[in-house]
Amino acid sequence: MTTTVRRAGAFALVGTGGLLVPAVSRATPQLVAAVAGRVPFTDRLTSQAVATVAGTLPFIAIAVLALYVIDEGFVFELFARPGDREDGRLYGLAGFSLAIAGLALLAMQFALPMTVFSTAVFILSYGNLAEHLVRAWRPDPAVATAGFVAGGSVLGFGAGLATVALTPGSVPPATLAFFAVSGALLASLLRAVLFARDDPLVMVSAALLLWLFADLGVTVSPVRVGVALAVTGIFGYVSYWLDAASIPGMITGVLLGLLTIVLGDYGWFAMLITFFGVGALSSKFRYDEKLDRGVAQENEGARGSGNVLANSLMALVAVVGFAASPTHVPVSPDVFLYAFAGAVAAAMSDTLSSEIGGLFDEPRLITTFERVAPGTDGAVTWQGELAGIAGAGLIAAIAVAFESVQPLGALVIVGAGILGMTADSLLGATVEGRYFGNQVVNFLATVVAAVAGGGVALALGAV
User: Fold this and answer.
1) For residues 329-361, b (16+ Cβ closer than 10 Å) or e, as one string?
2) At residue 303, what are phi and psi to the nearest 5 degrees?
3) Which of 71, 213, 236, 298 is most exposed, with minimal Cβ within 10 Å?
4) Quick check: helix, strand or coil at residue 436?
5) Interval 148-196: pLDDT, tens
6) d(C-alpha 459, C-alpha 450), whole Å
7) pLDDT tens digit string along 194-221?
8) Which of 256, 258, 225, 89 is nearest to 157 (CA)?
């Protein structure tokens, strides 16, 4: 067994102690009541305080020992990361334990669901262990990432089931599975772009995302979760196999796809996957020629997480808004459908206009119409504009086919996509490179399209 596997196993053992928190939260009130003989208001406060201390103190104690007591010996070598050895302090273990203590405090004092707490802790604890076990067997980054997601999902789901058994209340297994997989995907994505020492941030971020889903009270269908897992898993594998996305880009796409199917609908996913697929193919189209012209995407057209998020984050916001309406947001769910479709149409339009338009000579700057070199920010060609309009039309056609959008609604989506594409070019000619990077400009363009699509739908009574 390698050192990294042993260390991951030791951290997983500490994380397993997180199940003491829901157990303590259930047992403490009865113990206080038995001692007091009654449970007036003051005793309930005492019960809550005792439970909080009992749940958080063990992990605080571990952090104190890691920072000030354990500086050598077997335990130190078991938990030490390379950076820890330089200072003789177990910073990694301390941060990990304090993150668990902080989440326990949120669970006991601020209504973080216990299932969310235990799921997030086990996702990181056992996802990390699974990843290192896989790396010891096959040192392939993609396979190791799959190991993290699979291990974190399975053990996170198991922790959720155990927590339901330990605490009052009930959470459907399908919801627990959705929490576990979406949390594992987010954790895997964050680990791909951060460092090992940022694991506490990863754990807390996963817990906050799951807390949001729990607060929305989303009804999760077992069939839809199963379909989402199968479809997005295949999509992720194919995109990586075709070199259409980097590993972080693949994880981001899979996470977005999962959330779109579960929180939105199959038609929403059809629009999103069409953008990913057609966008990837357009990036690969005549790639060598684009490379010679200086307009090719980096990494041989494989899109990273930043690119995927820049083009899809606004669509994800619309999906969450759809799930939150009308109970949490007093707006018709159909408004968010048009915001989503508008954002995806803009991303599709901009991608096709850039990838196709970049193959033609004599582009003109959109603000002055002067001729500029290919690849200049804000440059457009009539061929690229036509390709962009066709891309927006394709997204609108999918919305008509899958979401029963009427012809007027299709025009709204096409118009939002063209507006977003135009906004991207205008921003490229004015502020890109000076104030913002390409990814920020792409995101702002999708914001313009989403606001336009959703705003017009709202004004027209959701079309």
Assistant:
1) eebbbbbbbbbbbbbbbbbbbbbbbbbbbbbee
2) -90, 135
3) 298
4) strand
5) 999 999 999 999 999 999 887 788 999 999 999 999 999 998 888 776 6
6) 14
7) 766 778 999 999 999 999 999 988 778 8
8) 225
